[in-house]
Write the structure tokens for this entry.
Amino acid sequence: MFRKALLSTVVGVLTAAMPLGNVMADYPDKPLRFYVGFPPGGSTDTVARIIGPALEKRMGQTVVLDNRAGGGGYVGLEAVSRADPDGHTFGFGVSGALTVAPTLRDDLSIDPHTDLVPVSGAVINPLVLAVHKDKGINTLQEYIDAAREQGGMTYGTAGPGTAMHLAGELLAKMTETDLTHIGYRGNGPAMSDVLGGHVDSVILDVTTLKPHVEEGTLVALGVTSPQRTELAPDYPTFQESGVDGYDVSSWFGVLTTAGTPPDVVAKLNEHIVAVLKDPEVSRRLLEAGLEPAPSTPEEFKTMIMSQFTTYAELIKSADLGGN
Amino acid sequence: MDTITNMSYGLSVALQPDNLVWSIFGVLVGNLIGVLPGIGVLTAISILLPLTYAMSPVAAMMMLAGIYYGAQYGGGITSILLNLPGTPTNVPTCLDGNPLARQGKAGSALFMLILSSFSGAIVGITILMLFAPLLAKVAYSFGPAEYFAMITLGLVAGSTLAKGSPVKSLAMVVLGLILGVVGVDVNTGVNRFTFGVTELGDGLSLIAMAMGLFGVADFLSNINLPQRRLPNTDRKGLWAMMRSTRPEPGDVRKAIGPISRGSMVGSALGVLPGTGSLIATFMAYAIEKKISRTPERFGRGAIEGVAAPEAANNSAAQTGFVPTLVLGIPGDPVMALMLGALILHGIQPGPALMVDNADIFWGLIASFFIGNVILVLVNLPLVGMWVKLLSIPYKYLFPFALLCVAIGVYSVNYSLVAVTMVIAFGVMGFVLRKMKFEAAPLLLGFVLGPMFEENFRRALLMSRGDLGVFFVKPISAGFLTVTILLLIWLIVSGMRYRKARFSSAAHRKTEVQ
């Protein structure tokens, strides 16, 4: 506590000594608010609690973490969009909310592409397709064959409209198999059903699945992203297993209020990137099962928009449920 | 014996000064949180989570777990004194606990609360200790079909809870099911009845509903009577209450059966994530009422009606740790938060946790024992103080309780939507009460409704629309058979009751003539 107080005093004096005038020089000049659109304990929250204190140290201002759970992350994003556009308020956007929800849902209170400004990518949370070992399926190809023979497979995810759901639909479409989506409320119940053999397979994040794969109860068939993951380098990608061009990634990034001056966005980006590259921060992120993935605001925006377009086409052609 | 070695190792971990202090701190905070109406365990744990960074993972888990089961103790206290269920699993405690308090027996009800909570918890911990890996298998042998069947039984049993008309009670279950529909449909992602309010996407708030239907509705009924204070708050009455801080003669003997049945039901169902503990609590109450020779006392201050559900929810709070600790699959949001704390410390929860981090597993179980003893030691002397709380004039006590409710509900998501819901449910509860409808079955329907639908549809998706799936699987078929028998029994006894009433009415008529 004392150290923190001392630090902020020192930084405060230093900032006060800087020439006043443009916004940039003063930024950040008050406590920062970091919205997390999910409840504490989830992976977004974990990341925020790892990078929050590091940002605080670096930016010399208190970073207040604020969990505003609900609406698939939209309660939090809405709060960010309504803040003053001065870069002191920012929040996490997850891939599903930014690239899938705008097509699938007509109840969004904000347009995430115009009411928010991308600042930087934060982490990748790779997705894995897994089955129970008793199924006797060991590769993606065997899974596809089995699905064709049995007239279909069921796969569980943490809910409809998530990147996991989309990953399953894309697999079904590209391999022309009949895969039935079973939505659960979060990872927990989906895991419990695959361990009990009630659902044929699951698509969940690597962190959730890995301990059960290591223990031998589940078999990991592949990762949905185009590259293998540092977190489980022995899992093949879907692409390697013969599904050419398959790419669904799950990530979180930081966004701030629309109308924030570009130089402030750049400054915030600089801090976030530096924090994500910090060896201690990245070690803790990897331990928690998340790969750091910093980027520039432009790269982040391009990634959001290109995935949004791809998925929008997929959703239309696969005639996915939703509004 | 392995268990003994493991347990003594666990005790050695739990008794390390650092761990012991945090564990005691956790149960005390939990107890307090339970007493403060409206502030949920989840809120408390999320506020205290940052504190755990500086602790060892073992101490962190002990503290967080302490908050969790400590709240179960505390939640019963306000149920009895103020008809405000501290957590939804304390709802059945209100049914008889509050009437007891109104009869000036708050002290003996509180004593029973502590006794049954402690006994339930000890049974739960013992079962957890001996059978954890086995119970984990039970937990995941429940798939959608099994959940659906169990919930069906829960709903039918729930309609026998009310003291009044079973038809009205069934109507309330159905109303609860309807209210449970609000929110995002988990199978398709479609928003239902949210009217563009983002916060409603996650459904109506359970805590707001419990607070509104019980506490606020009670308040609204009472302000009708301006002179009213809670009974026995004059000097003489207070004295009578103080004397009753010991159990009534025969209470303990009467409670042995309910406590042991409640603990068994709680331990068994507590293992099932999400639904288990709530169904267990309602079931324990329903069972006692069913087998009692004097079911008409229930809802009017039967001590068994406090003992059974409290034993059930406390044993369920302990066995609820099974999926979390054995498989690393969080049973509810609070458990998810605890696992989140482990992840922050670089420990990956999963099936290997029990072996790789034996200090966490066994240390935690040992700390449960210690924590529960502390809870009794703290709460027993406090009974007198809690009872005295009732001597505060109603006009000060209740507005203060309402303020706590508002702050608590607001703090869950910093949103006024939830506070609005409390008010709306309060008004609704008041109207229902005037029309002699009871709130407990409604709450049960509301909680179980979404899971009822979700699991039904999920089971059918998996069976490709074949309804036979519910009767082919043994567990599900078993639950459904019991449900059907219960329904037949309800209809037969209902008809007999009507016939008896009809003939006695006819009899009286002839006498008059």
